[in-house]
Amino acid sequence: MSKIGVMICGHGSRSQSAVDEFSTLAEKLPPLLPSDWQMEYGYLEFANPVIRDGLDKLREAGCDKILAVPGMLFAAMHSKNDIPTVLNTYAAKHGIEVSYGRELGVDPKMVAAAGGRIREAVESANAQHGEVALQDTCLVVIGRGASDPDANGNVAKIARMLQEGIGFGWLEVGYSGVTFPLVEPCLQHASKLGYKRIIVFPYFLFSGILIDRIYGFTDQVAAEHPEITFVKAGYLGDHPKVLETFAERVSEQLGAVPPPNCGICAFREQVLAFDNGEHHHIKPEDRAHPAFASVPPPTCVMCKYRTQVLGFENEVGAVQESHHHHVEGQGASAPGSNVADCKLCDTFCTGMCRLKMQDDHAHLHHHGHDHDHDHHHHAEYPHAKHPHGPESARKRS
Ligand SMILES: C[C@@]1(CC(=O)O)c2cc3[nH]c(cc4nc(cc5[nH]c(cc(n2)[C@H]1CCC(=O)O)[C@@](C)(CC(=O)O)[C@@H]5CCC(=O)O)C(CC(=O)O)=C4CCC(=O)O)c(CCC(=O)O)c3CC(=O)O
Ligand SMILES: [Co+2]
């Protein structure tokens, strides 16, 4: 009999309240799992403990089979590259079995949790400002936004199910970063549609820098449109249906045919980088799984790493590796964490700092500055310069 450990791999944030909220959620999970399983959690970025710390604890407690899950809403860079590489590197180094689950993903329980948060917002707006029919209300769903059209597309799918499930007059979908449209252009557009109430719902797990940004831009656009009531809905947080989905992502790994996942991707080579500088390459053919038959598993159908996806054709088969060591475990109060220290924004992080970093970086390259880019094999997002994407933050500086 093996001793089972459960590892929840959270995103992490520079915002301490976001980190606290994640740990609150993780601590609510054990009652939903068999009582003899031990659970730990860790973070990919900024916060401590890091993922390896949690794995160390499980190993020291004698767990010889670890069921890990990404604490992620969708499968993008973090779920598809960073976390499986961190886990497989650890498993190879310590000779321990670490299996990996799926992201929370498009799931009726997640849609129900989101629907619950939206209804709460509608009810409190009705109580505060008087009843407005749902058909006269515009729903705006804000996703995180990634360089992966599969993840961005799934945000749009969930948004549609929320609009259709509840019956809103109109729907717009925006993103907090990376892709387009970002929050501000999205809300400016929604303001032109003639709806007197706009519900802004962040499809996010926790608070953090990005939630502050979403609510911050909402206040800004609301101030320009006093004729419209903007309602800031709460994010998912530790909604019971989110907890249920997490528990399912852990337990389903022990089913007869566990769901395929990025930890055993049969479509790309994985590169594990060890502390001693050694590299270990795992070829797709080394990762047999019954689900990878001639027909791709449903979770992989739209994956840009498996097959040509419109606009992302040159990412097929890109090497799977982690590029996140540089922000791992820096601490939630890493330099630059505090908006008050930033000269580029006032009350919330608009993303202007990222644009500045890119500009400075381009400038350094222009002057022949030489530095190590070896860990950045991933392709640049094709629409990084879209006027309604991150560039839209520039005009407010
Ligand atoms: C504030 C910031 C950190 C900082 O610098 O302080 C931050 C914060 C957070 N991100 C979260 C989630 C995700 N982040 C990504 C992806 C990326 N995030 C990146 C940057 C930043 N992310 C900084 C702002 C930069 C800016 O926009 O101005 C990118 C651009 C660069 C990089 O990571 O190197 C990289 C692009 C990779 C690509 O190319 O696609 C994905 C998608 C994915 O998996 O790739 C998910 C969804 C996962 C899911 O699906 O759940 C959450 C938890 C949200 C929640 O609770 O739900 C927080 C916490 C918080 O808001 O504080
Ligand atoms: Co990087």
From TrEMBL:
EC number: 4.99.1.3
Top EC class of this enzyme: lyase
Ranges of compositional bias, category Basic and acidic residues: 369-397
Region (Disordered): 364-397
Cited Pfam families: CbiX (PF01903)
Gene Ontology molecular-function annotations: metal ion binding; sirohydrochlorin cobaltochelatase activity
SUPFAM superfamilies noted in UniProt: Chelatase
Transmembrane regions listed in the UniProt entry: none
Domain of life: Bacteria
UniProt keyword list: Lyase, Metal-binding
PANTHER family tied to this protein: SIROHYDROCHLORIN FERROCHELATASE, CHLOROPLASTIC
Protein name as catalogued: Sirohydrochlorin cobaltochelatase
Organism of this sequence: Planktotalea frisia
Gene assigned in the entry: cbiX
